Amino acid sequence: MNTVSINPGRLFKDSLGNVSPIYGSLLLLNSPDIIFVLLINFLPYPINSILSIIYYLILPPLILGATIIYIYRYLNQNHISVADAFEYAASKYLRLLFGLILLVIILIPAFILLIIPAFILLIIPGIYLSIRLGFISCAIVIEDCSVIEVIKLSWELTAGRWWSIFWASLAVSLALVIPVFLISFLVIANLGVETGSVLSPVVSGTFSYLVSPVLGVYYVLLYTGLQRSNRAH
């Protein structure tokens, strides 16, 4: 079993270097997310809850799939349009939806822990599985595999590399999460709890949207790097 070192700093630097020419296109690909965030916070309950369920069952798999194929094709000097990227993702919608649902199920203990601390023992296997199966979406889009095949591919791709992938994922996640928390805190501190609690999700959501292209390139570069390493061995 091979152990492979991944340098998060170098990966992040490469992501910044590659994202510039396609930054605007990736923002366009992810624009439904920011539009939804801006609208949903101002809609009354239960309309916002119903729309959230509908939205998260339909658009995230398409946006993720379109983003992956757009970045991958760009990195391989085989550009496609935003419309073509969405069309390609739509042809794999059910498999992409399955991949996202699987990861949500795996991470459910982490959400339950917020309510029931006794579930803490389930977090470790949940994180482990989320790393081992974290490249299902990339495999679906890039390799065009069946559901069973992508699970096997992601499992094999991450074998012996769990810690390296975990730290690489944690580093870039913290780079996003910490600014989001700081922004939310500053908004609430300056505007008060009542106004800040309404505007904070909008401001933090806008920040997340603006950095999403970099995170997308980071994810695809991580996947392709693991691919090359796997083939070399």
Quick structural gist:
The chain is built from eleven helices and no strands. The chain is mostly helical and 233 residues long.
Helix and strand composition category: mainly alpha
Q: What is the molecular shape?
A: globular
Give the low-confidence spans.
none
Order of helices and strands: HHHHHHHHHHH
**Helix count, DSSP H or I runs of 4 or more residues:** 11
Count of DSSP strands:
0
Give the C-alpha Rg: 18 Å
Overall pLDDT confidence: 85
Share of residues in helices: over 70%
The description of the largest β-sheet is: none
- Measured by DSSP, the beta-strand proportion falls in under 5%
Distance between the termini: 10 Å
Keywords, please?
0% strand, mainly alpha, 11 helices, 80% helix, 233 residues, single chain
Please, could you describe this protein's structure?
It contains eleven helices and no strands. The chain has helices at residues 8-19, 23-29, 31-40, 47-75, 82-90, 93-113, 123-132, 136-143, 147-157, 162-191, 193-232. 26% of the residues are buried. The chain has one domain (8-232). The radius of gyration is 18 Å and the shape is globular. α3 runs antiparallel to α4 and α4 packs across α6. It has 233 residues and is mainly α.
Per-chain topology:
Elements: H1 8-19, H2 23-29, H3 31-40, H4 47-75, H5 82-90, H6 93-113, H7 123-132, H8 136-143, H9 147-157, H10 162-191, H11 193-232
Helix pairs in contact: 1-11, 3-4, 3-11, 4-5, 4-6, 4-8, 4-11, 6-7, 6-8, 8-9, 10-11
